[in-house]
Design brief:
With about 450 residues, this protein is an alpha+beta fold. It folds into 3 domains: about 170 residues, Orthogonal Bundle (Triger factor/SurA peptide-binding fold); about 100 residues, Roll (Chitinase A, domain 3); about 110 residues, Chitinase A, domain 3. The chain contains 17 helices and 11 strands. The strands form 3 sheets. Strands 4-3-6-5 form a 4-stranded antiparallel sheet. A hairpin with a 2-residue loop joins strand 9 and strand 10.
């Protein structure tokens, strides 16, 4: 078995790896430390559990399970790099808020047919006490590692303005940002094994090379365990297609299909029927905005901040000049020196609470005081306009495509550096494998 297959296995969902009535849970009374990673310990039971989960997943996918000695070294390497990343999570004090974690756990619950966290907890803890808490902790670790990777790897990706310009001038760039595409989209999902879904997807991809009849594909390949959903999406701008799918379609020639696109909701295959120039402009509503911010601090309580903003609001309603009050009282130094001016603001540039108030305030009007994570605000919308943001959109999309290309290679390099710079002591020398392969 290739190491790459095992890497992909470790990227499987927490549900697939954790919830199985046939999966043993190892909690040996005479557990021992087999490796130390920074301040964290890897126990023998951790390794046994990881090997059992890996073997279970491989068997479910009808793939060959490697010999025990090879498997345990590969699993140990994955546990080491996982713990090295969690050491970095601790170092940077990264946190996952309760709502984000609950949403992620609920998504896993829904995959198993459960609609509430309470019912999910009861179901898991009926298998073994503490199972729900264990799964929740693993999902939390996964989310924290994802956040760490985004922060660390994205900082390594360097895309110059010249890189963007060169891409936009290339045939692929012209296709990505300057075209409308007529696409057929097929999604393959269901309760079948991964191998069965992949086989069905490969056959569908082959058939799409010879015809475009999505209904025929649905009827031919759908069954009790495989669900095939196809749609002729007609012509639409690439900007109206999710960026990850648009990047795949943009490189296709007419009549070609994408490789299999694996996602949480199934396997996707797209076929490009036709391409034409995109005459649609990216017109964005912008708001010329001023604001006044009063922030709580060590000497200004939240209640005092609220009272201050209400006092300023009353003065504004009485006719005092907005710019003068902003320059005098606002705690946002960047805008206060310019009378509270934020210039022309596009939706999405500010926090959601600010965005919502701004978009609901008529031109020339002043909002009532409102609170965000930064403190208490009053804003004034001086004018509203429609702005052609086509060039800006094209550059953003180009940067996203170029960034996605670099991410995997930069992630691989970062993981290697992390592994090399992390203190690791393997207690069992039979498991000491120097040929590290990053996850």
């Amino acid at each position: 078995m290739k190491t790459q297959n095992l890497k992909q296995l470790f990227k499987a969902s927490a549900l697939a790896l954790f919830i199985s009535s046939s999966m043993p849970t190892f909690a040996a009374p005479t557990d021992q430390v087999i490796a130390v990673v920074g301040d964290r310990a890897i126990l023998k039971s951790d390794l046994q559990q990881g090997m059992a989960e890996a073997a279970h997943q491989l068997q479910a996918q009808k793939k060959e399970v490697p010999p025990a000695q090879i498997l345990q070294r590969q699993i140990l390497n994955q546990l080491i790099i996982q713990n090295a990343q969690l050491e970095q999570v601790k170092r940077y004090n990264l946190k996952i808020d309760e709502k984000t974690l609950n949403d992620a756990v609920l998504k896993v619950a829904n995959q198993s047919g459960v609609t509430t966290l309470e019912a999910f907890q009861q179901k898991l803890d009926a298998m073994a006490p503490g199972t729900y808490e264990g799964l929740r902790n693993r999902i939390s670790d996964d989310l924290l590692i994802q956040r760490l990777r985004q922060q660390q790897v994205m900082s390594r990706i360097k895309i110059s303005d010249q890189d963007v310009e060169n891409f936009l001038k290339s045939p692929e760039g012209q296709a990505a940002v300057g075209s409308q595409v007529h696409v057929i989209h097929v999604r393959i999902s269901g309760d079948a094994s991964t191998n069965q879904l992949e086989n069905a997807a490969k056959q569908i991809k082959t058939e799409l090379n010879s015809h475009n009849d999505v209904k025929a594909l649905e009827q031919k390949f759908s069954n009790d365990k495989v669900k095939v959903e196809g749609a002729d999406m007609g012509f639409r701008p690439l900007s109206a297609i999710p960026a990850d799918l648009a990047a795949r379609v943009s490189s296709l020639n007419t009549g070609q299909t994408t490789d299999l696109i694996k996602a949480q909701d199934g396997i996707h295959v797209l076929k490009l029927i036709e391409r034409k120039g995109n005459e649609q402009k990216a017109l964005v509503t912008q708001y010329e905005t001023r604001h006044i911010l009063i922030k709580p601090s060590e000497i200004v309580t939240p209640e005092n901040a609220k009272q201050s903003i209400e006092s300023i609001y009353n003065r504004l309603k009485a006719g005092d000049d907005f710019a003068t009050l902003a320059a005098t009282y606002s705690n946002d130094p960047g805008s206060a020196r310019d009378g509270g001016s934020l210039g022309w603001v596009s939706p999405g540039m500010m926090v959601p609470e600010f965005d919502k108030v701004m978009q609901n305030t008529p031109a020339g009007e002043i909002s009532q005081p409102f609170e965000t994570q930064f403190g208490w605000h009053i804003l004034k919308v001086q004018d509203i306009r429609k702005q052609d943001m086509t060039n800006e959109y094209q550059k953003r999309m180009a940067r996203q495509i170029l960034g996605e290309r670099q991410f995997d290679s930069e992630l691989d390099g970062w993981l290697r550096e992390l592994r090399a710079n992390t203190y690791v002591e393997i207690k069992d020398k039979n498991l000491d494998d120097k040929s590290y392969q990053p996850q």
